[in-house]
Amino acid sequence: MPYQDGTYGCPVDVAVQMISGKWKPRLIFELQGQTRRFGELHRLLPGVSKHVLTVQLRELEKDGIISRTVIPTIPPQVNYNLTEFGSNLTPILEQMIKLGEVRISKEKEIKDKDRGEN
Amino acid sequence: MPYQDGTYGCPVDVAVQMISGKWKPRLIFELQGQTRRFGELHRLLPGVSKHVLTVQLRELEKDGIISRTVIPTIPPQVNYNLTEFGSNLTPILEQMIKLGEVRISKEKEIKDKDRGEN
DNA sequence: CAGGATCCGGGCCGATACTG
DNA sequence: CAGTATCGGCCCGGATCCTG
């Protein structure tokens, strides 16, 4: 959202706002190239409650990152997809995965070293 | 941090933990290839208090992303740098900037369209 | 100059119960 | 199945004042 003078904030901050939320990056990741149902996402993210999951999904939808499609059957079915705009987030996720892996292997080293010293 | 069974979480979540914090991505961005002093960072991020800035810097330091160097002059001088490990975050920042720019130009379009309709 | 100490408010997140 | 409704805790972030 622009300031009153019509200017916009730093691109970094803008991006931060879009993906900030404890589960959003994970959700975007799980929706890469796949349609997922609500319950599916709920199972894929152990620890998230349905309430919080709903809120995060709604925010992503409002930001134009994902789309939500309701199929009015009984029982109902709701599908989530990445939008075209949302696919712009893919490179970020890829880099986050790389970073996470680097970090994990670094921790493994430390742990292995500690074991060697005891 | 690993679980008790020695396994590690999803790389995405690990990365999220590292960069989550309202000002962290901005701080990492401002430290790309440059040494910066505390006051400098404080001026570069309008809106952040010294207290919060300190906390965020300390967390980044604890995670091994930045280094903190004190030069005991009067008045004191404290320099911050990205560590070698921290430079692993550069690709993420680049992608976040791209994303932010896409988003900003998209909002500009909408605003221009609205102006045309009124 | 670069913080530490203290207080505080909000919203982020989660648990539980209920529903079309 | 895919949510809503309600409640509550807790921590993040901010304001203010103080210091070597």
UniProtKB/TrEMBL annotation, chains A, B:
The keyword Transcription regulation applies. The keyword Cell membrane does not apply. InterPro entries: HTH_HxlR, WH-like_DNA-bd_sf, WH_DNA-bd_sf. Pfam families: HxlR. It comes from the Bacteria. Keywords: DNA-binding, Transcription, Transcription regulation. SUPFAM superfamilies: Winged helix' DNA-binding domain. PROSITE patterns: HTH_HXLR. Residues 10-108 form the HTH hxlR-type domain. GO terms for molecular function: DNA binding. This is DNA-binding HxlR family transcriptional regulator. The lineage of its organism: Bacteria, Bacillati, Bacillota, Bacilli, Bacillales.
